[in-house]
Amino acid sequence: MRRHGCLTGSLRAAGYARAVAPPMWLRQETIGSLPLLRSAGRPLDADILALAQTLADAATIGLLHSRTIIEQAKGLLAARRNVSLNQAFETMRSHARRHRLLLSNVARDIIDTGDMLHQPSGLPRAKATDAE
């Protein structure tokens, strides 16, 4: 924990002696990291670091898959309700927050059923003839 002074002090105060963060890559860009904290003073073994990178890669794939589902649902909802993509996304996000749902679960419901299971306030549901 040498490079990030402010964070280092907080981690040490919480009882951690080591921290590593394998990057989450999308093509050549780092989009995040998977922090690993260790209370023991010795560094992580190379095998553990390789496994951690594999887990970071898997997490990246999961994020991309979730984002793809959200984009598909956003397009479907926009078409069904005859609204913009931004309005569809805001409706999905508001619905998820109001009902304490994961946005990805709301998106899956839209893909599976063609709409959200609970009617959010704001945008009316499209009539059957509007969706054709």
TrEMBL record:
What are the TM regions of this chain, as residue ranges?
none
Please give the organism. Streptomyces ortus
The record's PROSITE patterns line, in alphabetical order, gives:
ANTAR (PS50921)
Q: What is this protein called?
A: ANTAR domain-containing protein
Top-rank taxon:
Bacteria
Which intervals of the chain form a coiled coil?
Answer: none
Domain ANTAR positions: 50-111
